[in-house]
Amino acid sequence: MFEVDTRELQRVERDLEAFAEKALPFAVRNSLNASAFEARKLWQAEIRSDFTLRNRYTERSIRVEKVRTLQVRRMEAIVGSVADYMETQEHGGTERKAVPTEVAAGQAMGSQPRIRTVRGANKMTAIRLTDRNRTADRRVRNRIAIRKALKSGTKFVLLELDRGPGIFKLTGGSRRLQVRMVWDLRKTAHHIPPTPTLGPALAKLHRQLPRIHRDALLEQLRRHRVFGY
User: Fold this and answer.
1) Where are the domains of the chain?
2) For a Cys staple, 130 with which of 136, 148, 153, 175, CB 3.0–4.6 Å?
């Protein structure tokens, strides 16, 4: 004949029920959100370390979509970039597009690489070109285009060179005219080597996940005073 004190067992059972109902969903949600924001911070640090940044757009393009539901099975936190070029930067690829020159960024002609952003007046959306002449001879078309641009007061002209077309900026008067390319329109294929920044950031995050999860659980245990915390 023996007696069993079940009061402690009942207390543990109540704590488990409270943990499952009140603490666990919040702990999982907070843990996922904290992991996503830590991933963003680490990713931005990798970007600053590996990229030559002309502005802060690439850093600001890293966004987090937080978990908002308390249904554990539906929880997911998302970290990613709204900049479409980040996938190419991560894995490498080939790109075909018009390329702004160093002159478009306000640098001296021949100073490579271009390290500044394109100036507002030199952006493609700000440029207005005169109508092209249909003369068969390319050199004649170029001379007419320059003459029309000077007459109209515009600073930009589309010229066709042996290596391909480009948009050029005109400075100075007709006697000391300077013609400098601001946009290379050849749209040649540019190979972009992979520069992974998300991968290394996630590798660093992986080492921090146990701490992030533990902190989220402990916070909820203390908040709800479960298991004596």
Assistant:
1) 7-94+192-228, 98-186
2) 148
